[in-house]
Structures are given as structure tokens and as C-alpha cells.
């Protein structure tokens, strides 16, 4: 939660599903509560229903009958977007290209009748907050993509919305700029403390920005949790593989003990079955001396990925395992290596139990 959590409205959607006129079931009935000041990220692959959910919250889409949207406990399902006090930013900026930066930012304030002096003060504050000072008098078509997206953000928050809705706002930018803006956006959201719902298909963005993440798949909510919960305790193989690299391993269970190749682990949770699917993240496996480790394999490939190397080891009786190793580790294709896995790093996937 943000430092000065508490600005904006709390949001609740109840039983909000959406079937479009052509019969497409974009969203199965979903219920979610978003706390005042929270940043909630809707994460999932293309077509999973993220934008539809956001549009229902915005008031751009009406949920199927039985669905309700509440802001601060008040039913706004029938309230049109312009009366919901939401700020929105899309992937495409939707700014007025012929107007200046300042006029774009101040637009919502002007149509709400905010006096000129106050408008100017608010614009100055937002220009500083979004790092576009000095560009106030430029026209939008004279700005770079990153600058335009900052203006779009400043414009969305200028009206002090109850809820800020962001739909893939960084997707159109190149990787380096996206990273930079992600950091700026994180600071901006934290300093504003406005309830924010953020749509992305990028798991790194979701982890960095979300107080909580809603992982969606095929029009349904697959899991809701903090970034750490989603990453370390995924409830399904889909979530495990969507939010990061994952080794998925079939495991035998004998007398309540999970037997993975190279070790037996007693894992909490009253397991009375004979088979499970376990997940181990690549960075939780250590490469060790083959003479002391109980699990062994042969290095099949090594790829340098910048801050570490991704090593694939086969023959560990599990199928190939992906392992993240420090760059300094001297590892070559064909090496025989030992592997060490901590019991805490192994996650049994409940869905498959
Ligand atoms: P993306 O990341 O590609 O934007 P998304 O997760 O935001 O995807 P939605 O835009 O919510 O997904 O779409 C969910 C499903 O509903 C898709 O199959 C889409 O084609 C369909 N859909 C969206 N809008 C309409 C519409 N107006 N009429 C019919 N089908 C629609």
C-alpha cells in the first residue's frame, strides 16, 4: 500500500461478467474489492478480459445483468463515465495533438470550471511531478512518445480522480524508456496515493507496480495476491508460468512425503495423495559440487542474460531443469554438475493435487 494511502475511492465489482452482442464471453462474472489508495494490476495474456474489466469499472461498458460496480460503497453501475470521476490513460495517448502540453493537462479542469489561477498552479505541480517541466508550451505533435505518455498521465490525474485507470500505458514505448517510466510511474502513484487499476500483459511491470495483482486467463480470475504471493505461491501451472520462469516437476508422494528426484521433502499441507505437480523457480536452485550434492545432471545449454546466466541441466531424472547462476560461476556445456534445492523453494501446485 502507498505511503499516504487513502486518497480516491474504494472500488468493488460484484458479479461483473460481460457477453458482447456477437456472443463473445469476454468476462465471466467476477467479484473484486480494491482498497482506497491501492494499486491493483490486471495481468494476463492478450484477450483474457483485462480491458473489458477496466472498461466496466470506467463506465464505458455495462456489465451483464446481475453485475454491480460500487465506488465507496455507492452503486455506480448506471452512472456514465463522465460522472464517475475517473482518470484514464490508454496505450494510445488520445491527447489533443494541436494543443499545448499545458492546455492538454488543464483541459479537464477547464471544462469543470476551475479558475485560471488554480489551473495554472495545478498544471505547474503536475508538470514537475511528471518530469516534463520546460515543455509546457510545446504542442503534442512536437513531443516524443515518452513525453506524450507523461502528459497523458498528468492530464488524467489533474482532475484529482477518485479512481485512476491505466490500460497498457507503457506498451507503445521502447524497452529502455518503458523501464524508466515504470520507475517514475511507481513514484508518481505512490506520491498521489490514488486508487489505481492498471492493465498490463507484462509481468515485470505488474510486479513492480502492483500492491496486488489479479492474474486473468480466458475471461476468468486465475489468482489474486501480492506480487510475492503470485510469484512464490501460484495456485496453478498457468499462473506459475505466466509470472516468471518455472520448472514444473511431476512428483511422487509416498506416506505424506514428496519424493522429488534427489531428495524427499515433507511439505506441510496434509497431503494424502500419491502424485503432485511441483514448481521450482530457476533462481532457487544452486549449482554445487557434483560429489557432495544428491542431485546431478549434465549442462545442456548456458545463455548469458545480462545480470546472470540461465543454465539448462538435463539428466537430473526430472527432465531438463532451468537454473539461474551468477555470471562468475564457471559453467560450460557438457559439465557434470550437482544441484541443491531447498525444501522451502518447492511449491506444490494445489490445482493439480
Ligand atoms: P489485450 O491485452 O489484447 O487488450 P484483453 O485481456 O484486454 O486483451 P479484452 O480486450 O478485454 O482482452 O477482450 C476480451 C475478449 O473479448 C477478446 O476475445 C475480445 O476479442 C473480445 N471483445 C472485446 N471487445 C469486444 C466487442 N466490443 N465485441 C465483441 N467481442 C469483444
Describe the protein:
It holds the Pfam family TOBE_2. It is found in: Cell inner membrane. Involved in beta-(1-->2)glucan export. Transmembrane domains (TMD) form a pore in the inner membrane and the ATP-binding domain (NBD) is responsible for energy generation. By secondary structure, the protein is α+β, with helices and mostly antiparallel strands. It folds into 2 domains: 11-240, Rossmann fold; 246-352, Nucleic acid-binding proteins (OB fold (Dihydrolipoamide Acetyltransferase, E2P), Beta Barrel). Helix content is 24%, strand content 32%. The protein has helices at 50-58, 101-111, 116-129, 145-158, 175-192, 203-209, 227-232, 237-242, and strands at residues 11-19, 25-34, 39-43, 68-71, 74-75, 86-89, 163-167, 195-200, 212-217, 220-225, 247-254, 257-260, 263-265, 275-280, 285-288, 295-304, 309-314, 321-325, 336-341, 346-348. A 6-stranded mixed sheet has the order 6-7-8-3-9-10, with helices on both faces. The protein has a 5-stranded antiparallel sheet with strand order 13-12-11-14-20, with no helix packed on it. It has a 5-stranded antiparallel sheet with strand order 15-19-16-17-18, with no helix packed on it. Strand 16 and strand 17 (309-314) form a beta hairpin. Helix 2 packs across helix 3 and helix 2 runs parallel beside helix 4. The chain is globular and about 75 Å long. The model is unreliable at 1-5 (pLDDT under 50). Adenosine-5'-triphosphate (ATP) is lined by residues 20, 22, 24, 26, 44, 46-52, 201.
